[in-house]
Amino acid sequence: MYSHIDPFGNYFCQKLLDKCTDEQRTRIVHITSPHLAQAALNIHGTRAVQRLIETISTPEQIDSVIHALNPSVTALIKNLNGNHVIQKCLHYLSKEEKNQFIYDAICTNCVEVASHKHGCCVLQRCFDYATFKQKDQLVKEISKHALVLVQGPFGNYVVQYVLDLGLVTYSENINQKFLGHICSLSSQKFSSNVIEKTSLDYADDDQREQLSECIRPFLTAIRYTPHGKRIYNKTTSIYHKSNANFKPKATNDSLLITQ
């Protein structure tokens, strides 16, 4: 255990894992598994744990590592060192969906993970290694909390990432959460990026028209706000393409506050 987290000993552990037999590696896993999650949080220990994940191969070894890390997935994801261990698991345990424990933990703590600076990055990597079933699982949970996530400095990137996948069913689920909140979302720093760059760009024609109609009554109000003016330009551009006689509807600025 102490060799794992030692500034020099962790290099010895990494080399040992490279050279040992499967039987010896199994013994190492059994000895270190009670301390694996704690070691993963350590700046030196994380390197040894990552190498362990790279080298395990038997079902017994894999199951032992999963059992050791499973209770601490969320804490590891949010940690500067631990999140790299989870990313290794996503990659090296993707065969036969052995990484499913990570997807389950993230969906249980979706807002907490997606709202964290390390968590939002790990969540995006989850999509890179996900099966179709796992993607659907993530999107279902992200869509459920999209209205909260889109207003945060990190959560908005997660929502954008889902919309960037370009699947109509995914964008439709998320855009439905925005209806009724378009004015306030268009005026906020983080959510305005999503409304401008993704919802209006990647929505299908029906969704785009629906969103544009929701925005149109508030165009005059958001036109002069720091973030809303971009939405104004985007929306008026859409309308000008489809209606040469388009004029923004007048609105009371107080609507911007009460929406």
- Poorly predicted residue ranges: 250-259
Helix content: over 70%
Count of discrete domains: 2
Oligomer: single chain
The CATH homologous superfamily of the largest domain is named Leucine-rich Repeat Variant
Find the structural class using helix and strand composition: mainly alpha
Broad CATH class of the largest domain: Mainly Alpha
Shape: elongated
Let me know the number of strands: 0
CATH architecture of the largest domain: Alpha Horseshoe
Strand/helix succession: HHHHHHHHHHHHHHHHHHHHH
Radius of gyration: 23 Å
Helix segment count?
21
Distance between the termini: 56 Å
Mean pLDDT: 86
Largest sheet, described in full?
A: none
Question: What would you say this structure looks like, in words?
Answer:
With 259 residues, this protein is mainly alpha-helical. The chain has 2 domains: 1-130, Leucine-rich Repeat Variant (Alpha Horseshoe), CATH 1.25.10; 143-244. 73% of the residues lie in helices and 0% in strands. It is built from 21 helices and no strands.
Question: How would you summarize what this structure contains?
Answer:
InterPro entries: ARM-like, ARM-type_fold, PUM-HD, Pumilio_RNA-bd_rpt. By secondary structure, the chain is mostly helical.
